[in-house]
# Entry
Amino acid sequence: MPQRDHRENLTESVERGKMLWEVNNCVGCHSLIGEGAYFAPELGNVYVRRGGEAGFKAFFSGWMKAQPLNIPGRRQMPNFHLTDQEIDDLAEFLKFTAQMDVNDWPPNDEG
Ligand code: HEC
# Structure
């Protein structure tokens, strides 16, 4: 049985990512494992939904750099002007959250 809190995966990069998650108020628009705002998609499983081990970091880095998409009529996400290291730390944090044992929440990959 893995530990429920996955402490063995709690690296310094994950901790920095958590800090970036807080100071940039990602939770002001997103929910994470059900906690937060409902303006933007749940991100507790975005790691799984967008490529996992093989593809998530590339997706995430591209996504963060492409904002705002400026698609008319679509909700916008700001650009946070993060460094590559910061983007990697946030990706590690989202990977960590995807691997926590949260009783299969959210109920499907689309959150
Ligand atoms: C002002 C609101 C807002 C804030 C703050 C915000 N986002 Fe978003 N985010 C959005 C919206 C809206 C979308 C969906 C956009 C779309 O589908 O075109 C989104 C989408 C995403 C996606 C893609 C989700 C998917 O299912 O593909 C990721 C990853 C993401 N945000 C990460 C973050 C992170 C990390 C932060 C904090 C650094 C953050 N967001 C802060 C509004 C926000």
Remarks:
- Residues 7-99 form a domain with the Cytochrome Bc1 Complex; Chain D, domain 2 fold (CATH 1.10.760.10).
- Helices lie at 12-23, 46-49, 52-66, 84-99.
- Residues 30 and 40 are 5 Å apart (CA to CA).
- The chain is about 40% helix and 5% strand.
